[in-house]
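User: quick one, sequence for these tokens?
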């Protein structure tokens, strides 16, 4: 996930940079795009920084859980922000696709 800050969300570049199998990286990419944390060309991590010099470790680790397939991130129009939900309990989630 952190390597994408340098390489972008490209599976081939990430796999080459990290030495991880492309199918492993591709599965993470799918989850990050579904969570609207990555696009075809960009990686979004602004929510990790809540103020100048203040790092939001909770937001970072929630994104790690998404990358691992243990959580999903969905926009909730009613509350006006993203919700993080355990993948096993999220509607329309493929919890079986988690990274082992």
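Assistant:
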């Amino acid at each position: 996930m952190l390597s994408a800050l340098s390489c972008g969300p490209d599976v081939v570049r990430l796999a080459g940079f990290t030495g991880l199998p492309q199918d492993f990286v591709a599965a993470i990419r799918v989850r990050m795009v579904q969570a609207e944390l990555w696009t075809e060309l960009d990686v979004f991590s602004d929510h990790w920084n809540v103020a100048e010099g203040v790092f939001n470790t909770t937001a970072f680790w929630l994104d790690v859980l998404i990358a691992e397939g243990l959580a999903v991130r969905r926009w909730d129009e009613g509350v006006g922000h993203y919700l993080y939900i355990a993948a096993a309990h999220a509607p329309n989630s493929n919890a079986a696709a988690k990274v082992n």
